[in-house]
Amino acid sequence: MSTRRHRRLAGASNRLFAFALLTGIFFSTQVLPQPLPTRLGDLNGDEEVNVLDLVILINHINAAQSGAGVSPAGSPGILPGELVPFADMNGDAFVNQTDIDLLADVILGLPLSSRPITFEPASGSSEVGVTVRPKATFPRPIDVSTLNSNNFYASFAGQKLPARIVPAPNGTFAWLFFDPSMPNASQVQITVDGATIRTLVGTPLDADGDGAPGGVARASFSTVSVVGIPGTAVSSRIVDPGPDLVPRTTDDVTLGNGCNYLLPIAATFKSSSKPAKENAQFLATTTPHSLGSSGNALLGSTGGHSIRSPIEST
Ligand SMILES: [Ca+2]
Ligand SMILES: [Ca+2]
Ligand SMILES: [Ca+2]
Questions:
Q1: Which end of the chain, N or C, is surrounded by fewer C-beta atoms within 10 Å?
Q2: Which domain holds residue 42?
Q3: Are residues 58 and 131 in the same domain?
């Protein structure tokens, strides 16, 4: 944006806020429009997004923050709950100063930026554990009742994998809980079809972030191999890296007659033939480890133990 255009917009924005403050003196409480608005930012339901909506938004946030020691989270503000999603201009599930600025931008004719769904694991990840639960974070809070196995699923070789959809209560993200686990050494694809997922403002989810409602977002990753190698034994020891979280520094190891690890972690292995021995040494003769394509040995741990990350196998 040129400096001249930037100054012009800044001046227009200042005039907009000044007008909003003046107007706010004469407009106070908010009444729920019937039916609900069809446009983001239209807080009075008159099919326009203008300074009157800005006044309502400012009043809402001021009311939510009013009173010494009253946190916004504990104060509903003046907007009815059904209208709050229309005030959340950036779709982060919060209504605050950022949304005021973005609403002012929209009134001034500036477009809202859009972004696609983000995935964890990210597309292109490799050696993903078969028990990992993929997560999709939506660009806007969604109506979780519109999520189903036809618009949010994982697939392998064109076949959907059985999974339970677990959404966040506020509709900002959702997980896939697989049962059974994902196939190992496989290319898994996650798909979200925004056309049939509704946001809390009633529009199809812009899954691909192209600015238009709807669209499909996909992510692919490969899972780790969990196939044991017959006749293989792994002998090792699990130790803690110490408070500095850096392995093999003075807080976790001393030198002299070899390495003396100061913080061994007692460990057992579910499918190993022998449990951990002294100084956290173990010998796994039934190959409870998986070997990834890189040749890394992967050690799994299950709950119940507090292990500082990263742990090191020596
Ligand atoms: Ca309006
Ligand atoms: Ca927001
Ligand atoms: Ca789209």
A1: N
A2: 3-107
A3: no
Q: Cα(298) to centroid of ligand 1, in Å?
A: 57
Residues near ligand 3 ion, CB 5 Å cutoff: 206, 208, 210, 212, 215
Q: Minimum-distance ligand to the CA of 106?
A: 1
- Pair of tokens at residue 224: 């780790």
* Domain contains 113: no
- Tally of structural domains, the chain: 3
CB atoms near residue 243 (< 10 Å): 11
Q: How many A from CA of 248 to the centre of ligand 3? A: 49
What gap in Å lies between CA 208 and CA 216, rounded to an integer?
6
CA of 17 to the centre of ligand 1 (A): 16
Query: Do 49 and 98 lie in a common domain?
Result: yes
Residue 202 has a pLDDT of 92
* Confidence at residue 64, expressed as pLDDT on a 0 to 100 scale: 77
| Structure confidence by residue, pLDDT tens digits, 58-107 | 988 888 776 544 444 556 778 888 899 999 999 999 999 999 999 999 99
Ligand 3 midpoint to CA 263 (Å)? 52
Nearest residue to 123 (alpha-carbon basis) of 36, 49, 26, 188: 188
User: pLDDT digits over 15-32, tens only?
Assistant: 666 666 655 544 545 556
Residue 192 CB burial class (10 angstroms; 0-12, 13-18, ≥19): buried
Q: How far is the CA of 37 from the centre of ligand 1 (A)?
A: 8
138: domain CATH number?
Answer: 2.60.40.1220
